[in-house]
Design brief:
The protein is α/β, with parallel strands linked by helices and 230 residues long. It has 2 domains: 96 residues, no CATH class; 112 residues, no CATH class. It is 32% helix and 28% strand. The protein is built from 5 helices and 11 strands. The strands form 2 sheets. Strands 1, 3, 5, 7, 8 and 10 form a 6-stranded parallel sheet that branches. A 5-stranded parallel sheet has the order 2-4-6-11-9, with no helix packed on it.
Length: 230
């Protein structure tokens, strides 16, 4: 962090929240306010977090996550204010609709590519449903691809691959599954995947010499796990 850069980090924001909670409980002990009543407006905090995700203020911009957090937080806040009567959790099927629409949109927006990567093609396609796969990518012109794991898993070895184009994107969709990506030591890895009740772990080391590829990992991980290592 440079001196001219923003010093507002997640730790600072969390510290401010802890201070605010301390003030509320102190005022409650002094009989100035009712802490239970004040804390009932907690969705205002998560609504603010969603707004930060949408705008990129003090954090990495993530529009889908920001919209989702802001929508449910705003609804819970309106419910607390008696503006609406129906609980937002009654709309849980919308989650399935959004997930399905995301899969369809991601599949349709990509142009058709050659089929088999083992034959020298540039684009990876991996799908697992209630199953697992192990793949070693040996192409000389890797350009990214799509990896889907639904109650299944993939072990994908990218170490033999080359990336003359400079940057490649892998779109993930993981539902109750797992994906392991092994990347070359001279590739830079950027994690932009969204995890909901899951996790994305990046244990790769930064390249010590010339960077010969930039792998960007995007997508959605729901109740699953993704690990990237070199």
């Amino acid at each position: 962090m440079t001196e001219s850069g923003s010093r507002i980090t997640g730790r600072v924001i969390f510290g401010i929240v802890v201070i605010a909670l301390g003030i509320v409980f102190l005022l409650d002990e002094l009989d100035f306010v009712d802490a239970e009543d004040v804390l009932g407006y907690w969705p205002a905090l998560t609504f603010g977090w969603g707004a930060m995700l949408m705008t990129g203020l003090c954090c990495r911009r993530n529009l889908p996550a920001g919209l989702l957090v802001s929508f449910f937080s705003g609804w819970l806040l309106l419910l607390r204010l008696d503006v609406v009567r129906r609980d937002p959790w009654d709309l849980w099927p919308l989650v399935l609709i959004v997930l399905g629409a995301t899969m369809v949109f991601t599949a349709l927006r990509r142009p058709p590519t050659v089929a088999a990567l083992e034959g020298g093609a540039a684009t990876l396609r991996a799908f697992a449903l209630w199953s697992g796969s192990e793949r070693k990518i040996v192409t000389e012109d890797f350009r990214g691809g799509e990896v889907t794991a639904i109650m299944g898993g993939h072990e994908i070895d990218l170490r033999p691959a080359k990336m003359p184009g400079g940057t490649a994107v892998i779109d993930l969709f993981v539902w109750w599954g797992g994906v392991e990506l092994q990347v070359p030591t001279d590739w830079k890895v950027t994690n932009e995947a969204l995890a909901l009740l899951g996790g994305v772990t990046d244990t790769t080391r930064a390249p010590e010499g010339e960077i010969k590829g930039h792998l960007v990992v995007r997508g959605l991980v729901v109740m699953g796990g993704v690990e990237m290592r070199n």
